Amino acid sequence: MPTQPLEPGRRRAGARGTPARLADGDEWLFAHPFDVEGPIDRIFDRLTLGDRLPLADVWEAARALLLANYDLDDAELADLLEVGGEAEARVLADAVLDALFGPSPPSRSYSDWVCASMRANGLDPRGFSAAGLADVLNILVATGRTVPLAEFADACRAARQQALLDTLI
Amino acid sequence: MTPTPDSTRRPGVAARPVVLADGRPWGFAAPGRRSAPIFSESTDGSGHPALNVDVRGRVGHPIRIERLVDDLRLATRGGTAGARCEAFDALAAALLREAHDVDAEAARMLLDVPPADRPRLAGAVLAIALGKGPTDA
Asked: Measured between CB atoms, does A2 come within 8 Å of chain B?
């Protein structure tokens, strides 16, 4: 008789959360975080500080997120959370980060940053030339009246996130 | 569009080539180094429960593949010929799809070699599944 899958057999009633495909090939639900104070704080601190994201913290968070939804022992968790190299570790880390901090927001571009920065300061971007707009935005950033482009636009944030994940393991 | 080995190859998956029904060599995922957590609980200096996370390393396939190997082993010990074929096809398709981004139907067609060629395919796939022979990155 073929091996019986653990999902959905071990799923608790009322389980919900973010779907993630784990090492057994099945789709599991990472619970919405409510009891992962230790790992979520460490992961957030690491991401904020641009520090390395240890796989041990990803595993600990994933364990807590799974145990909220499933009846599993630590040996079963170990099998489910096993990774085979950088690519798989990155997929697991992305799934855990999605569950902890929510999916990525809608794409935000350079134009979105310009409009948000100008409007937050009561200015209409349509009233400026491209060169004039750049000067105004530089002043707004320098005086702390808007966030730097690198912290707003998804292309810049994605590059930074990629650099962080590149240090995984 | 007909899938080709090059256009569907998943990067970073170590594999070994086997010629399939279209006459081209396709990669079948080979065993590799894997890391899993070892969780253990203890108490910290204040007597509060603490979780420890260590790493267990091994060389092998992902658990989803290991289970299919186990299923094939079970089928060969007393299973019907149909069950053995079904278990082998599931394992072969899984190893192929680990290494190539092809859907289940494309995998089924690629693995549908002439009956006379079936022993060669079975031998090659089983050797890869069990980690015998060299690996192409």
From this structure: yes
